[in-house]
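TICKET #2291
ISSUE: user wants both folds in one file
ATTACHMENT 1:
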Amino acid sequence: MNVVGEVLTRFMGYALFTLGRKGGMPHADLHIHTTASDGSMALAEVPAAAEHAGVSAVAVTDHDTVHPDLADPLTERDGIEIVRGIELRVETAEERVDLLGYGVRETPALRAELERLGRDRIERGRRIVESVEAELGVALDVTVGSGFGRPHVARAVVAHPDTSYSEIGAVFADLIGEDAPCYVARDVPSFERGRDLLADACGAVGLAHPLRYADPDAALARCASLDAVELHYPYDRPVGHEAADHADGRARVQRAVAAHDLLALGGSDAHDDSLGVAGVDSGEYRRLRRRIAG
């Protein structure tokens, strides 16, 4: 990448990183992960982390699962409102993308699909661990169970005393990213099936981090049949910034918001307790909340 391109990349990453933070921290962080999938924070720790970050509401959007300790679409815990959400990976003709469901009221059809995905995730996790162990010649201290994901593997590799890895991003790049030697694909539903399952169960369904995909325009075109898109997202995260070199990325997403009358949502995609690095203001959160409560 030339110098101009690098400057544009860094500028866009910074601009998108700070979206939703005008006047201080965002009101709501609508994309966080817990130990129910591949996050490191337990649900009980979420209210304190949210308070520390200065946000008043969060959406718990664990991968392919609805947090078992959240019974209602909206829950208040220690003064923090928690949206019962989910992040679901789906297949399109171009590539795999992630959908976010907000305010889940679980249906039998969604439950059946999540149970199938849970079994597939465990089998996939075992195969990735075996492959990484063979590649590095080490035994990883990791247990493959419900909600297991690649970040579990990456953290175990970094923590192992006999590997040279000190950053999770490097583990993804070298070993378990989509083009890396130890990557194992999952059996995910089609975009249409995933969207329909979430539409029947959720107050709103949106496209996650549209600029992370190899073809952002194709991903954004899918918003025509959705309710929302992540406009506010920290694209300078160590993992998953593949397409962040699009200098007009924010404008692309904003055009989709206008064209399809979408909720302009977002969040930190936190896999630890660092909440509030991206999110939405109180007005946009109220729009989402009306959809969930109604």
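ATTACHMENT 2:
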Amino acid sequence: MDIKKIKNLGQLKAAGYQSKSIKEELRENLIQALRADENPFEGIIGYENSVIPDLERAILSKHNINLLGLRGQAKTRLARLMVNLLDEYVPVVDGSELNDDPLQPLSRYARDLIAEKGDETPIHWWHRDERYGEKLATPDVSVADLIGDVDPIKAANLKLPYSDERTLHFGIIPRSHRAIFVINELPDLQARIQVALFNILQEGDIQIRGFKLRLPLDIQFIFTANPEDYTNRGSIVTPLKDRIGSQILTHYPESIEISRTITRQEARLSKDQRDMVKMVEAAENVLEQIGFEARESEFIDDKSGVSARLSITAFENLISAAERRALLSGDKTTTVRFIDFVGVIPAITGKVELVYEGEQEGAYIVAENLIGGALRTLFPGYFPKLDKLSREDERNPYSPIINWFGEGNSVDLLGEDSDKEYRKNLDNVKGLGALVDKYQPKASKEERYFYMEFVLHGLAEYSKLNKDRLERGFNFSDLFSSMLS
């Protein structure tokens, strides 16, 4: 069908166009995608065996959908990607504010126009990218915003009584006829406003003031919500939940690998940053583990959740910390260091909701503890366990390093050191390079120095070395000497 040639109702009929509901559109196009082994939810990672199959079953069932999960779980993105399952173009009566189907006119305007012009009724073609509406539920949302109200200005201009249907101003939901409409954070919508949605979901009609309207609205509703027990956030009233066909539970990434892939995909880095800063896989793993530590932390409200945006913004900060250092030191390229994780603390403190105990500790201290916890969790995956080794243990592979510090040596690692100074300071630590070469023999030159610093921070975390915070970095020294001094 060449839509460029179809400009009125008569031409549309002659072309044999068949109307179908939006839910039928979604269902038919999903069936085609599944048969062709195509992924309509491209870019959604980690939901392949959980959320997406549930969502596809709901679409096949022609259900309205509620996506239930904590913040930062790609609920809105899933809803927006459903647009890809719509037909590319659908016909609309020209000038209709309710996007009337020319073969099934809904509004008074469209019915009058077709009665007047018949097959000459003009139409235009509506692209699927425009068939999406979204509203964030806030306490100030009214029934008039969503459903509609009488418009006194329209009544005055048209010289009509308020009892005339043509005086109505339709809200965002009727204007989403034949489209996907999303209400984000549904529990935040006042209960009396939620009640106004009952008939729309069940019978497809709306009530505006005292008008006897039965508009069979054709809308694919998608709601997003946090769990009901989220503190002071309200809830979805039971009769409304009963009218939503499928409630689908979302979740956070289940592994570091999945989380790392999401972060890489979503992080907004400039070409200059990508060219200047080399990322080390071990550093990425530490960064992602911070999010996992936060979701288990006793200082952070688990009902609030820890958004995937924590890892994304922390990744951007980590790269920027290394970039800033290279700009100051004059290095043309550099590699992420463990000391750069100081730069991700602002990304952490703004993404977690602390409980009372966390407030007492302070957001900065909690963030530092999360970084330390991530290091402790991952350290045994790279090097021998530290927690069961004593300083005097002959089998202790860390003895040469600890003994070097015990002889009165110390090392400063400063955030603005050039790569040359940084590597020189690490090379001075006796036994450090040999340890990394033994347990990480395949490490590249850049990775090797990251691991060397990683070991020093690990020894400090397990109380084998002393680590003091300096104005511009860290000092590592012997633990017992520092205690005596």
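RESOLUTION: both attachments delivered.
EXTRA DETAIL ON ATTACHMENT 2: Residues 253-381 form a domain with the Helicase, Ruva Protein; domain 3 fold (CATH 1.10.8.80).
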